[in-house]
Design brief:
The protein has about 375 residues and is an alpha/beta fold. Helices cover about 35% and strands about 15% of the residues.
Length: about 375
């Protein structure tokens, strides 16, 4: 199978590319811009780009002609990963995010729609759990009831969060608790990044249906693991915190530390994409890919402090960022049914593997506080 992978040298892209090359029988065309925000200067990943089965094109997918030339090699499938990532940064680098995420996707789809001989059999998109916003909730005590009324809270106000009110309540004041988010739950993006990912999904679904191309959007939860950029302060909370502890810094835990995420190991994500290449037409177009379990940020930090032997290296500050959500974790029933597997790596094991890898990498400057102040500065202007 010949597979075009946009963003194929990014964190997730490398894991997928290596997995497909190890499987054998595939030719890969990889298009990646090698953004300096993410990649080390001069890094070209020769184990991938030097492989006989790989054609590598260093280019921006939004540049005219780049995707047409890549598609002209007649790909059987396209894995579309290329995107700017980061909730906070998307709130002010809006044109940059939309140029890559929305315009880049539009160019890909236009080439496919207008030129039948360039059409692949299927297109897989790296979508995001961020499209759900706060996700789904039920009243406290009703978590085990599948018929319980589901609530989809509106965005938290700055006034509430300034006052330390981070959780949600039902209209009658009953506390709400998070439950696993289904693919059928409504989309409700809370950041410009999330809105761009939802736009990608909608564009791909509509365009692929119009020309009979199989499409699946894999809605990835918080992906982490060895190889995640240690220099990018805008995404990858576990990598950011690992970098801080390596420099004997202190981790600033936002809100009250009880916000939670679904952390999914990068190799499990790569396996999901590998399997999705062979899905049949009856498979749903949206599939959650996650661990299916929530860990609070405080729980994750405690695991990290223990692994790195840095006890008491964090503080709960009560600070918050516009666009951040309180809770979200995935219902993975579709993944189990259609992709045929459950995740193999839970957070304690995956975190341990990630730290072991990170300790062998160059120490990067901690830019996380600068990124936080950058966001706050832009949103206060005017």
């Amino acid at each position: 199978m010949h597979i075009l992978i946009t963003g194929g040298l990014g964190f997730i892209g490398r894991a997928i590319s290596r997995r497909l090359l190890a499987e054998g029988g595939h030719r890969l065309t990889i298009v990646d811009t090698l953004s300096p925000q993410v990649h080390a200067e001069g890094e070209t990943y020769p184990d991938i780009t030097g492989h006989d089965a790989v054609t590598f094109v260093q280019a921006d997918i939004a540049e005219p002609g780049v995707l047409r030339a890549a598609l002209a090699k007649k790909a059987d499938a396209v894995i579309h990963l290329a995107a700017e990532t980061g909730t906070g940064q998307s709130m002010y680098e809006i044109e940059r995010y939309y140029r890559t995420n929305v315009t880049g996707t539009a160019i890909l789809l236009e080439e496919i729609v207008k030129t039948p001989e360039l059409r692949p059999e299927c297109l897989l998109l790296a979508s995001s759990r961020s499209i759900y916003g706060e996700g789904a909730y039920v009243m406290a005590g009703e978590q085990a009831d599948p018929a319980a009324q589901r609530f989809y809270p509106a965005a938290r106000t700055v006034a509430d969060m300034d006052a330390g009110r981070f959780d949600f309540t039902a209209p009658d004041g009953t506390p709400l608790v998070p439950v696993a988010t289904h693919e059928s739950d409504p989309a409700d993006p809370r950041s410009l990044y999330a809105a761009s990912k939802l736009a990608q999904e909608q564009m791909c679904r509509i365009a692929c249906e119009s020309v009979d191309i199989r499409f699946h959007g894999l809605r990835l939860q918080n992906v982490y693991g060895p190889g995640q950029s240690l220099k990018n302060p805008y995404t990858g909370i576990l990598s950011i915190f690992t970098n801080i502890l390596r420099q004997e810094g202190q981790i600033d835990i936002f809100e009250d530390g009880e916000e939670s995420r679904d952390f999914v190991f990068v190799e499990d994500v790569a396996r999901a994409f590998q399997t999705a290449l062979t899905l049949d037409d009856a498979a749903p177009d949206a599939i959650n890919v996650g661990l299916g379990k929530a860990y609070t940020v405080s729980e994750m930090v405690a695991l990290l402090e223990a692994k790195m032997d840095r006890p008491n290296s964090s503080k709960i500050s009560g600070r918050f960022r516009p666009g951040d959500i309180r809770h979200n974790y995935a219902d993975i029933a579709r993944m189990e049914q259609h992709l045929g597997f459950t995740p193999e790596v839970d957070l304690p094991e995956g975190l341990s593997r990630t730290v072991d890898w990170a300790l062998g990498q160059p120490v990067e400057e901690d830019r996380s506080e600068k990124a936080t102040q950058e966001l706050a500065g832009f949103l206060k202007r005017g």
